[in-house]
Amino acid sequence: SSELTQDPAVSVALGQTVRITCQGDSLRSYYASWYQQKPGQAPVLVIYGKNNRPSGIPDRFSGSSSGNTASLTITGAQAEDEADYYCNSRDSSGNRVVFGGGTKLTVL
Amino acid sequence: QVTLKESGPVLVKPTETLTLTCTVSGFSLSNARMGVSWIRQPPGKALEWLAHIFSNDEKSYSTSLKSRLTISKDTSKSQVVLTMTNMDPVDTATYYCARARDGYTDPYYYYYMDVWGKGTTVTVSS
Predict the structure, then answer these.
(1) CB of A45 within 8 Å of any CB in chain B?
(2) Angstrom distances, CA of residue B57 to CA of A9, A39, B34, B54, B84
(3) Exposed, middle or buried by CB within 10 Å (0-12, 13-18, 19+), for A92?
(4) Pick from B14, B6, B82: nearest CA to B50
(5) Buried (b) or exposed (e) across B94-105, using 16+ Cβ within 10 A?
(6) What is the DSSP code string of B78-111?
(7) Nearest Cβ partner for A96 among B63, B102, B108
(8) What is the pLDDT of residue A2?
């Protein structure tokens, strides 16, 4: 079982805004990082730290945190954003690392 | 340019030991606050973190797999090696290595994996 909990599936209309959430006790002291994975490809980091995007990640991706919940927001979702999204951090003890179970995003 | 490349057997038999190598370039395994993580993904399933090793030689393992995993690094060769003993068909997965970064930015700590290898698929079957 994962110490980070994500909704299994979320959908959004093309051009609309969607929020993907990740819950876990470790998020009270750790920023979540977020990864996008498309079929047959390796995951790609999209958000890390307070709200940082690696080079090449569109600014429609943003991250936030409140209490034990981290959120990935896509403002103006595009068809190419359809993918699985995973959150990640160290666990509550800080000794190990955990992933959420992943959220499958469908862009309608 | 930072790259990571996984290598190892495509097929292993049950009970055998799997040895995977991650060869990195574009950064040094001795760089502060940098490390390498191993992650796997069974077909159609979620990502699962396995282990990491950092430049200060901090090692950590998945709780559920700790007894079967060993991670090590050879800084001079820019390689990180993961061994997993007693392989079982449920260990069939794509295995990834990724560069890991950790630290603190007020008010929280952070941990992320910013560059990933393409992955190597391992099948466990007799």
Answers:
(1) yes
(2) 38, 34, 10, 5, 19
(3) middle
(4) B82
(5) bbbbbbbbbeee
(6) TEEEEEE-S--GGG-EEEEEEEEEEEEETTEEEE
(7) B63
(8) 57
Rounded Cα gap, residues B123 and A25, in angstroms:
35
Q: What is the pLDDT of residues B63-91, one digit of tens each?
A: 999 999 999 999 999 999 999 999 999 99
In this predicted structure, the answer to whether residue B41 has a pLDDT above a threshold of 70 is yes
Q: Which of A7, A96, A103 to mutate to test binding with chain B, by most B CBs within 10 Å of its CB?
A: A96
Q: C-alpha dihedral over B27, B30, B33, B36, to 10 degrees?
A: 70
Greatest extent of chain B over all pairs of C-alpha atoms, in Å: 51
What residues of chain B lie within 8 A of the CB of A97, using their CB? 37, 49, 52, 60, 111
Render pLDDT for A5-36 as a digit per residue (tens, 0 to 9). Answer: 999 999 999 999 999 999 999 999 999 999 99
Q: Which of A43, A44, A89 sits opposite B111 (nearest CB)?
A: A89
Greatest Cα-to-Cα distance within chain A, rounded to the nearest angstrom = 40
The residues pairing with A22 across neighbouring beta strands, listed in sequence order, are: A6, A70
The pair of three-digit structure tokens given for residue A102, joined into one six-digit string: 């992943």
